[in-house]
């Protein structure tokens, strides 16, 4: 569905973000895009949506070049930016003006989503809080039934019950035809939703692996003491939270935060395991 | 559902499904929630539930009736017992043994305690 | 699927853009109407006072400067606000990701910044003018001397003759030519401000204005200096003594020239818009 080939991107000479990035994303998955602040999560997403232009390299989304901003592709993209804009009008008028651009827009689904999010349909967008507006724009985006769903920090600004609603909604939104990419630094909000992790670090993709693959190759466990098998460990109350190679085919629960820190700290040890 | 720290999510969901069946909440020969429905309830990726259901089909706890959906098998309960038994012996018993050994607990004491526990609870 | 232009998508886009742009537009229009009406109220002659005098044609002279100064101000503000949102990350994202082609979006911009404001400005100006003429000058007539066919003849102006866009009350034989240049000039103004609103990320209007002033001053300076360089201490030598002003086609040529420059700016704007990043 998405093919990135040798992408080079920089905002200026001193701010290089990507060096020769290549990867492929396919439909039927929820990708979690992780990275430190400034690693380029939002920029990668913007590249996919054609909002910024790379210096070199090729991006192919559903057979289109996103930089051309062709309507045939735009109607298949649902992009939820971190900072978004909604005009000061009623939800109904917003839908009336924007939904017809999307041939697969599902009005019933939109109504269901608003209901799930507890948002009254007749409300004016200007009277809403940031979190409520975010729910509206997420509902709109999903109701377009776009094939590519891109969300930049979607849980920012959502309260605790809304985060649970969001997880339910995303679990229901994933279909065979859709490719969902979510960037986040609040991994705990989403770690059971993500089935493939993409981590950006030092201008590269530091890790791209499905949760199953990670769990096959690595073992996440509590240890009393660190031994030489440990790849990475963090001290905790009950000893250490550690990552070791998965020698005995154990089925452990992937700890996204631990993995993230391990990738940042022990790139060299992890690389051979995943290649 | 609250997931525990250290067991793979798909296995925890498998435990949940088995428990529903053992408790009789999902009677045999009844259609069980679809992958999507269970994923929504658990707030997890549908692919994870898919993996759970694959595992349970292998264990003959549920079966796929073509075009209709997933059903609890007739002998689900006994299959679950077998499955859980191996799981317990493989995964949980070693920890118990380790503690018995470390804390120096006598087998006779253990048996007495076990008997009273069964008497009180079942 | 046509990725360049589709009528259905285009009309959807017109509706969508109006939803947000319409408010600003109507508000500006309201202010402009208020200003025009204000000027008319203060300056328009009351017949009870002027009936017996012949001052009316001079009393309504304020209309020309009002029309020519207010017009560019209004259309430049409208043109300057249309793409102003591109400087705002969130708004630009929603604009650029709307499933319509770049051409459709740009043509919509031209319609809303050039065609609609120019037409509506001319329309409301003439409506206000019509109302005042009807109210105050409907039974006032005036005889003026007009140079026609090599001699002066008397001509009576009454009622409709006082309307701004009729102009038979003044000796404006080249009114049409002025109008031609004016309209091409207003297109140039909108094109420049449209480009400005795409080009600058913040304070688009002011920055565009400053840029234009700087550009015009530099151009003037060069013009004056070049004139000095070429013609200082030189005397004109010509077989006839008349000035060789622009010929009969002069205004048309000027208008065409201005329009071509405007088109150039529109094209620059389109290219800038295509390359806009968030």
UniProtKB/TrEMBL annotation, chain A:
| Matching SMART domains | AAA
Under the heading PROSITE patterns, the entry gives: ABC_TRANSPORTER_2 (PS50893)
| Keyword ATP-binding among record annotations | yes
SUPFAM superfamilies linked to this entry: P-loop containing nucleoside triphosphate hydrolases
Q: Which GO terms describe its molecular function?
A: ATP binding; ATP hydrolysis activity
Annotated ABC transporter domain residues: 2-227
- Please, which domain of life does this record's source organism belong to? Bacteria
Matching Gene3D superfamilies, A to Z?
P-loop containing nucleotide triphosphate hydrolases (3.40.50.300)
Q: Which InterPro entries match?
A: AAA+_ATPase, ABC_transporter-like_ATP-bd, ABC_Transporter_VariousFunc, P-loop_NTPase
The protein's UniProt keywords, in alphabetical order, are: ATP-binding, Nucleotide-binding, Transport
Write the protein's name. Answer: ABC transporter ATP-binding protein
TrEMBL record, chain B:
The keyword Nucleus is annotated on this UniProt entry = no
* UniProt-recorded Gene Ontology molecular function terms: DNA binding; DNA-binding transcription factor activity
Keyword list, A-Z? DNA-binding, Transcription, Transcription regulation
Has the keyword NAD been applied to this entry?
A: no
Q: Which Pfam families match?
A: GntR
CDD domains recorded = WHTH_GntR
Annotated signal sequence range: none
Q: Do you know which InterPro entries this protein is assigned to?
A: Tscrpt_reg_HTH_GntR, WH-like_DNA-bd_sf, WH_DNA-bd_sf
Domain called HTH gntR-type: residue spans = 7-75
Q: What is this protein called?
A: GntR family transcriptional regulator
Q: Which organism is it from?
A: Pedobacter chitinilyticus
From TrEMBL, chain C:
Q: Which domain of life is it from?
A: Bacteria
Keywords of this entry = Membrane, Transmembrane, Transmembrane helix
Stretches that traverse the bilayer: 21-42, 66-85, 106-137, 178-200, 212-231, 251-271
Write the protein's name. Answer: Uncharacterized protein
């Amino acid at each position: 569905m998405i093919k990135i080939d040798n992408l080079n991107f920089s905002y200026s000479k001193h701010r290089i973000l990507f060096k020769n990035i290549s990867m492929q994303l396919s439909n039927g998955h929820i990708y979690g895009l992780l990275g430190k602040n400034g690693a380029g999560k939002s920029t990668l997403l913007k590249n996919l949506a054609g909002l910024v232009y790379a210096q070199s390299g090729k991006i192919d989304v559903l057979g289109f070049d996103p930089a051309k901003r062709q309507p045939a592709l735009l109607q298949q993209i649902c992009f939820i930016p971190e900072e978004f804009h909604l005009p000061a009008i009623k939800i109904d008028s917003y839908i009336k003006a924007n939904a017809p651009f999307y041939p697969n827009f599902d009005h019933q689904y939109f109504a269901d989503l608003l209901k799930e999010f507890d948002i009254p349909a007749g409300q004016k967008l200007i009277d809403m809080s940031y979190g409520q507006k975010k729910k509206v724009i997420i509902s709109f985006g999903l109701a377009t039934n776009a094939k590519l769903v891109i969300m930049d920090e979607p849980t920012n600004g959502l309260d605790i019950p809304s985060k649970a609603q969001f997880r339910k909604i995303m679990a229901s939104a994933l279909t065979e035809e859709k490719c969902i990419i979510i960037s986040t630094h609040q991994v705990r909000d989403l770690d059971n939703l993500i089935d493939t992790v993409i981590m950006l670090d030092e201008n590269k993709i530091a890790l791209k692996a499905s949760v199953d693959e990670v769990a096959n190759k690595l073992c996440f466990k509590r240890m009393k003491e660190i031994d030489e098998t440990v790849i990475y460990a963090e001290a905790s109350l009950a000893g250490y939270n550690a990552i070791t190679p998965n020698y005995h085919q154990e089925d452990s629960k992937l700890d996204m935060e631990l993995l993230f820190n391990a990738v940042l700290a022990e790139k060299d040890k992890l690389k051979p395991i995943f290649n | 559902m609250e997931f525990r720290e250290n067991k793979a999510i798909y296995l925890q969901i498998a435990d949940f499904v088995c428990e529903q069946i053992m408790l009789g909440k999902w009677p045999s020969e009844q259609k069980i929630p679809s992958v999507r429905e269970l994923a929504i309830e658990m707030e997890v990726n549908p692919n994870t539930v898919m993996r759970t259901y694959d595992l349970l089909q292998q264990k003959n706890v549920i079966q796929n009736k073509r075009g209709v959906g997933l059903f609890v098998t007739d002998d689900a309960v006994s299959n679950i017992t077998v499955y859980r038994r191996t799981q317990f012996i493989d995964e949980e018993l070693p920890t118990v043994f380790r503690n018995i050994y470390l804390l120096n607990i006598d087998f006779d004491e253990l048996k007495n305690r076990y008997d009273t526990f069964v008497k009180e609870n079942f | 699927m046509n990725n360049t232009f589709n009528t259905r998508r285009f009309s959807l886009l017109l509706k969508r853009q109006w939803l947000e742009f319409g408010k600003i537009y109507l508000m500006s229009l309201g202010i402009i109407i208020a200003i025009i009406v204000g000027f008319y109220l203060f300056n328009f002659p009351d017949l009870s006072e002027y009936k017996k005098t012949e001052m009316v044609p001079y009393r309504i002279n304020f209309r020309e400067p009002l029309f020519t100064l207010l017009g560019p101000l209004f259309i430049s503000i409208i043109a300057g606000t249309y793409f102003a949102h591109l400087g705002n990350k969130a708004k630009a994202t929603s604009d650029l990701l709307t499933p319509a082609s770049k051409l459709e979006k740009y043509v919509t911009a031209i319609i809303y910044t050039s065609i609609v404001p120019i037409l509506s400005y001319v329309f409301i100006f003439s409506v206000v003018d019509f109302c005042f003429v009807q109210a105050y000058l409907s039974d006032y007539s005036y005889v003026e001397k007009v140079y026609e066919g090599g001699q002066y003849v008397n001509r009576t102006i009454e009622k409709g003759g006082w309307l701004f866009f009729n102009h038979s009350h003044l000796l404006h034989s080249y009114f049409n030519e002025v109008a031609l240049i004016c309209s091409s000039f207003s297109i140039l103004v909108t094109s420049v401000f449209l480009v400005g609103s795409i080009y600058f990320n913040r304070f688009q209007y002011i920055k565009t204005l400053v840029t234009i002033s700087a550009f015009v001053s530099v151009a003037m300076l060069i013009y004056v200096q070049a004139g000095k360089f070429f013609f200082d201490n030189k005397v004109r030598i010509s077989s006839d003594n008349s000035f060789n002003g622009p010929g009969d086609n002069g205004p048309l040529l000027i208008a065409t020239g201005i329009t071509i420059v405007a088109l150039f700016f529109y094209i620059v704007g389109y290219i800038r818009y295509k390359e806009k990043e968030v």
